[in-house]
Q: What sequence folds into this?
């Protein structure tokens, strides 16, 4: 019991560090429909995986931006993780460079969709 | 000729059983652009495949919710099939459980997109 | 500590129930390269998710056969889960029917690859 | 009844025109595991779709080589369709050009896998 | 230097021939966020690849419509290339036939999403 | 002319730095079937993209390992890039950590396929 609570709390703290305090209300909205997906999202990626010392948070977020660009369809999650990447120390230039590199591995449509999402994140932040 | 009409009629009746009577006008709208895609959609999945006795309609719709969650991009079709799944006897809990399980096989972004679509279906129905 | 051991043990027992006793040596081989992927595989899908009561094991394995057919590339995992599905009560007819239905949602190449894998599982078992 | 037989026969004749007489024994092998996938494969793509006059067989096979290159995983089907494309009038240069163009839309890994498959088809034919 | 300018100019002229003069302002908007993705898009697909004589522009656009239908998620790019395909000599019937054929290789959800995009292009043009 | 040669030579030198001298004969084998795909592979990713200063080679190879793990089907290319990643300074632990993280974004089958490929690279190098 004890342990389960601390996995959740650990993951939630890490999500706030990456995505900012607004992530709490986004999780609440997700949990209204699926409390289980919300809980697993906090615990599995952000407590079990992102806590591991082998890669730092900036590198992890860069890898995630690459992964979501390749998948192509989850532009809502890419929006979140571009914001997350900027919060943990990525520059805009690095994010756009990751997207450009993904044109090599997943094609130009993947890169073009991701640039549009990056543009909307950058615009929100001005 | 005879046979062709009955494949279409059989498929259309099954689509109405799954998706409700509104599917007829949705098919008409599709047929305005592509009568051939509309006709094949009625005949191939819903007459040739869904009519087969090995799996019941509820199981078929559960499998389709899984398939569309994995594909990730066809959220319009997922919306339709979540409504279909509910119509043929799935509970909301079962649909959300399928989506949660797909996080294992297609990752969390796939599950998160599907939860959003499920949420919008559930909200429409209240 | 206690809890962590029991999640692993619970997941491992469930994997043995699904895949048979041979899964233990397969996990050992996986753990030689990546003990972390092996541990997470036991704990996340097979303890956290498959243990949940909303869907029974047979339904879960059917959904997984659908998911892996749609993904197309993980034929090694599909081989495993077809064997798993048979172990937990699916018939060969049901597995082939799932694959046929996936031709609708992911196209014929997905179905053809999956039939080849099903054929090799069925042949091993004769 | 009549009609069903002729759809199958029509599709089978078209498959032989595209893939050569060897396709009959390949279909038999497929039908040993799944007679339904085999029958639907003959009837749906090769009777219902490829028979339509809007696109000629050469164009259809070029589109299919593009589609399978983009999907990436079904290299067995790509092998078949490269042979089919050559049979219905494509040149090797055209096939390689399609694959090169797909590097733009699906990335270099897709193109590299397809070139390997094309190389093995070309080598068999010498 | 000389050469680099001419690759860009050659690609830009070809993009205008395919997509119409409006593509220049779309490229400018893309270049505001990522000048490098914009430049590579002009130079790699439209100067290096589409300039090659083996396939004509109409065939290339047909292949691209197939590729984007299969990928499924890049409906914005599909919208562009359906307009491009019409500009370089494809008929609406050919475009819808390509989409129908892709139902065979990528499933009905891919075809249904593409028909919706084709419908919106056709409607814009009336 | 001048410029074109130097793009190729620059890309080839970078490929040798990443993949070792053996890459030259692999490119020759590729060029026997498709000299154009071989040339574009050297020039576009490895001259135009990887030469850019925003990301170092180690980061680029980590991103590529992530991308190929997500795509799932190009295990031959993943094998190459895992070797490349090790050559430019990644540790085995980092590569396995990237693969583990990709279980979150692309599911466990993607991670399991990639671990098998990593295992075969590590075994070759002992």
A:
């Amino acid at each position: 019991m004890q342990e389960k609570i601390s996995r959740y709390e650990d993951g939630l703290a890490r999500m706030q560090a990456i995505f900012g305090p607004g992530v709490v209300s986004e999780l609440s909205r997700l949990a209204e429909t699926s409390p289980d997906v919300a809980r697993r999202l906090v615990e599995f990626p952000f407590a079990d995986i992102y806590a591991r010392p082998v890669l730092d948070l900036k590198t992890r977020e860069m890898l995630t931006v690459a992964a979501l660009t390749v998948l192509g369809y989850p532009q809502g999650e890419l929006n979140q993780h571009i914001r997350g990447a900027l919060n943990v120390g990525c520059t805009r230039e690095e994010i756009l460079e990751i997207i450009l590199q993904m044109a090599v591995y997943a094609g130009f449509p993947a890169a073009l969709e991701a640039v549009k999402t990056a543009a909307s994140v950058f615009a929100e932040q001005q």
